[in-house]
Amino acid sequence: MADLQLGKVWIVDRDHKPVEREVRTITAHTAAVELGPYRHFMQKEIFEQPRAIADTLDGVQAITPALFGAQAAAVFPAISGVRILACGTSFYAGLTAKYWIESIARVPVDVEVASEYRYRDSVPDPSALVVVISQSGETADTLAALKHAKQLGHTHTLAVVNVATSAMARETAMQFFTRAGTEIGVASTKAFTTQLVALYLLAGALARAKGRLSDAQEAQMLTALRHLPAAVQSVLALEPQIIAWAEAFARRENALFLGRGMHYPIALEGALKLKEITYIHAEAYPAGELKHGPLALVTDAMPVVAVAPNDALLDKLKSNLQEVRARGGELYVFADADGQIEASDGVHLIRLPEHYGDLSPILHVVPLQLLAYHTATARGTDVDKPRNLAKSVTVE
């Protein structure tokens, strides 16, 4: 039992004997809960992302294991792999992180849906790093998966959470706290992009610990991260164009999202956002899988959204988009300014201001958030509190 007073606290056990507890100072990062000029909290939180990303990066002067806690410097050099456990939007953040960690740190990564992980006979690897991702840090399935991993002998555990006092933060050996501030809308936006920032830092920190990140590469990563808030702000300026698309989307009941490489998880997240708040049925696929089934769905009544950055896979993606057009599908393409895709009959195009390399997924998810938001407002659904959903899933 605790007796709290201004400047004083007394703690006693069940026998009423005084006990001592370690004092921990928690830096809170909250945002005002007033709507201000916005119609909904989700819209407000989408537009808070530049600041949330900047807050998450505040104080990051170097990319080192120390960003993830006192134990990380000793643990990271010896880990054999990474196992990421998460649900929903956080799971898609983990899928994106797999691309970063494997390409930058050259460490193998498994990403698992937390609600499935503990119900199969998995093979534990005590030398692996178990990473749990959650906005609230209280997600029941992810917490249960974490406890299961620890029972299997995993001691190297890391939480990426937005709440420093959460159960997940207490249950893990290492932590990284995103600083997204209060997120009220059920459909996660700024929590997702700050998770991505944290996981990109994790990729760099693992590479540094294993001697695979040069000083020049670290400097490039830091430069890109520091410019990221401004880059996201420039993407937000595309809102008027996206509103025009949303009017057409509002009349649809199905949609298909396509992406390749590290933008496939972003397509998944775009489809999830659309179905969460508009109630439009949406699916996402790797674009290369079109001929393995999804192409059968394509008609002139099925809008197809493509995430098309100007990367090494763009030519492959363009071939997939041609397959869609050949079947009469209507394309809505988010490309980069220097991407070699042109608008035409049945091909609607919005260009992002710049290609952003490894951090491109963070930029490309923002217009997908706006598309879902404005489609929902056009349909008149409850944007901040969609039916049947809760902000924090604290029961299985």
Ordered list of secondary-structure elements with their pairings:
Layout: E1 2-5, E2 8-11, H1 41-47, H2 49-57, H3 72-75, E3 82-86, H4 88-105, E4 109-113, H5 114-117, E5 129-134, H6 140-151, E6 157-161, H7 167-171, E7 174-177, H8 190-209, H9 215-236, H10 239-249, E8 254-259, H11 264-278, E9 281-286, E10 303-308, H12 314-326, E11 330-336, E12 347-352, H13 360-379
Parallel strand pairs: 3-4, 3-5, 5-6, 6-7, 8-9, 8-10, 10-11, 11-12
Antiparallel strand pairs: 1-2
Characterise the protein shown here:
This protein is of the alpha/beta class. The chain has 13 helices and twelve strands. The protein has a five-stranded parallel beta sheet, with helices on both faces. The chain has a five-stranded parallel beta sheet with strand order 9-8-10-11-12, sandwiched between helices. α2 (49-57) packs parallel to α8, α2 (49-57) runs antiparallel to α9 (215-236) and α10 packs across α13 (360-379). The chain is globular, with a radius of gyration of 22 Å. The relative contact order is 0.13.
